[in-house]
Amino acid sequence: MTRKCHRLLECPLNPVEEGPEFELVLTCCRPKPTEAHYLRQQQLAATELDSGKVLAYAYRHDVSSLLYCNLRSHPVGTFPNELLDKLAMRHKRNIQRASQALLAIHELMLAGPGLNLLVMKGLDVAARAYGDLAARGIGDIDILVNPEQLDAALTKLKELGWNIDEPEILFTETRNILLRNQNHCLLIRKGFPHMELHWRATHNPFEFPMDDWPALSVSKKSNIGIPGLANEDLMIYLCLHGAKHGWGRLKWLFDLPNILATHDLDWPKLWQRAHQLGAGLALQQGLLLAQKYCRIDLSREIKRGFMYSINLSQWQSIYTLQQGPEQWMEHLPVRLKLQQWINRILTARKIKVLGWYCAMMFYPNVDDYRLLKLPSWLQLLYFPLRPVLWSIRQVQIRQVRKLKTGNAGQ
């Protein structure tokens, strides 16, 4: 095999080098371990595993429930009881969150029967690909609404007891500016996971355009009646989302082998759609990561769509982010933020997608508005002031980090 083919068809990372604790987490990518993963788990259990490290990885990557589902399948005494007990607590909490999320979605569907809604990621993927709502970590409730029905959906949610946590996005004089920069708003309701109400699927409107409302597909495996993206679009969307966040959580990567195992995908159609959207490289990157991390075989039909070289810096950036602390998922250091932005540029395969990412460096967002509230007749000043406001926020973030570090050390 030539050097070029090696770059195209393999992920050069070796995640097991991180240690047996990280490798154990990787073997728990399915709700029920494969025979190979089960045997490897037995072998790793015989080594001197650091339970604290295992838990840290499980919490950091939001895969505690998957670990519990895997490790409890072994004979009693294979893994420390303390480790299993802590994972069981997280699993129980995840069952509650899944029940709350399911209730919230059904309430909204009943309250707004005329609304065009899709459930993104999370609960939909858990139902369709894992066969167990509690096996996949449930974070926010992600709902996509037809953009023309955004205000109607917000009205229904308010009637159900949800309060918007970021009113600046929708109820200020800068609404039109912020709607172009943002793709969702956060809603909060006591006793429920947070809800993200999306008016477009991805941050970049040209990555997954919503010109035509996508066809709905209902999960037949779970029979819970959750509308979601069609199978091929779901696979593309999961890879776009993972690539956007630098595959910083294993939870997002673990979705892929479970989708492949439970869905019959039309790969010629899927690749055609991915290349049409400019998402081919993101899809190829996700599949190669899943092949290496989860030890899955990619068929020749899948590999026919591989056509991009992915440079070593992109792979290394993914590995660095995965091993970094939890706070990096919210506030990356400037150096890594720049690297992640470059990786997004390299991943973009369409001029419109690339142009939008470059333009957003100078386009105001909700954080700019919170830092400096300008009247409507001065809104255009947000654009030249953007670099200044960004610099001020970076100073504030560093100060908060120092304060947290100081408090932790006391």
In whole angstroms, the N-to-C terminal distance is 56 Å
Q: Could you tell me the number of beta strands?
A: 7
Instruction: Enter the CATH topology name of the largest domain.
Output: Beta Polymerase, domain 2
Low-pLDDT segments: 1-6
Label the overall shape.
Answer: globular
- Rg for CA atoms: 22 Å
Beta-strand content estimate: 5-15%
Q: Considering DSSP H and I runs of 4 or more, what fraction of the residues is helical? A: 55-70%
| Average predicted local confidence, pLDDT | 87
Whole-number total of structural domains:
2
Known CATH architecture of the largest domain:
2-Layer Sandwich
**What is the H/E order?**
HHHHHHEHEHEHHEEEEHHHHHHHHHH
Name the assembly state.
single chain
- Structural class designation: alpha+beta
What's the CATH first level of the largest domain? Answer: Alpha Beta
